[in-house]
Amino acid sequence: MSFFGFGQGAEIDIVLDGTENRKMAEIKSEDGKKERHLLYYDGETVSGKVNVTLKKNGSRLEHQGIKIEFIGQIELYYDRGNHHEFTSLVKELARPGELSNHVSYPFEFLNVEKPFESYTGSNVRLRYFLRVTIVRRLSDVVREVDLIVHTLSSYPDMNNSIKMEVGIEECLHIEFEYNKSKYHLKDVIVGKIYFLLVRIKIKHMEIAIIRRETTGSGPNMYTENETIAKYEIMDGAPVRGESIPIRVFLAGYDLTPTMRDINKKFSVRYFLNLVLMDEEDRRYFKQQEITLWRKGEKTPRKGIQQQQQNLTARFGSVSIGDRSNSTDGRQSAGGGEDGPIGGEQTAVREDGEGHRHVNAMTREDEGSESGGEDGGGSFGGVKGIHGSD
Predict the structure, then answer these.
(1) SS3 for 244?
(2) Mean pLDDT, the chain, as a whole number?
(3) What is the per-residue DSSP string for 326-337?
(4) What is the structure's pLDDT at 305?
(5) pTM for this predicted structure
(6) Could you give the angle at the alpha carbon of 167 between the alpha carbons of 239 and 343, nearest 5°?
(7) Looking at 102-106, 139-143, 152-156, 342-346, which range is the least confident one?
(8) Which residue has the higher pLDDT, 6 or 35?
(9) DSSP-based three-state secondary structure for 363
(10) Which partner for 64 in 87, 110, 135, 170 could form a disulfide, CB atoms 3.0-4.6 Å apart?
(11) Residue 167 CB: number of other CB atoms within 10 A?
(12) Whole-angstrom distance, CA of residue 151 vs CA of residue 129
């Protein structure tokens, strides 16, 4: 009778404890709009009460039981029929019977494990939600409320700088350096670019942050690249010996922590894409992966000051055309040793005849920016960039 609109109906309201003091966070919905929900962390208790309000006074509501579930699931958009649940907790609120008045049921999921961060991407969604179900013979009454989960990390023990020399044979050699390889979501990327050889007419240079989302496996693997931000770092033709500083603030962009092989379903990785454009509008690029993490605990003030002093000593005093200010122990472009920086990724080497070998930059018409794990150009000897204009 209720199915045809003649019987008793009910509305369900889920009220979570501590909503006045708990923070809220934003996440994209599937259609790209921003949604705000209460924010939780791994191991926190989820509790509250479920209010069931009858629509018609004086009429009874028969049911086969009332339950509440805490669910964490991954939905792949190409396989919408299957939801992959990695967390599923159930509590019975009421046994089969009937309701004649409005009723409220308390619930508590104690110290709930929430191993992954909430995420909505191009081809996948990871969500946490509470679902209340009033089980009925013809049609259940269901109410869902989403939660947002953030995964916190502490400062990484190893956080080496990134240094690499890249170029185009006999045309362009540049060296770029980033102060770290792992950044928290409100961090600042600090670095510099030094021009060793310039024989092409460069018009401008920019750095971009690219998010690479990989879902599925085998024939059902999908890779989606999204440019989160572009930042122009040079306008005009550089000369040999010129040094360009880099400073990119991450706080203003829509970023998530790096996610690797989440529940064997998807990964989210981030790359810094260095792009040069010449006067004939040909683009050359080199990508470098970075790791992003969400900062959990506040760094002591003394630690912050020490980090700032280290950054200033290493990157802050580099001026145009003066390489001697760099504190990595390296000499001028014409020679000298390549002084290593504590285990960083370096792509400069010499063969038995004393020839220098650097990573090759990739021209856009030779391959897409999403190609290859290193984002274009293989490690090894210098490769020329040729082809039709």
Answers:
(1) strand
(2) 78
(3) -SS----TTS--
(4) 53
(5) 0.75
(6) 105
(7) 342-346
(8) 35
(9) strand
(10) 135
(11) 24
(12) 16
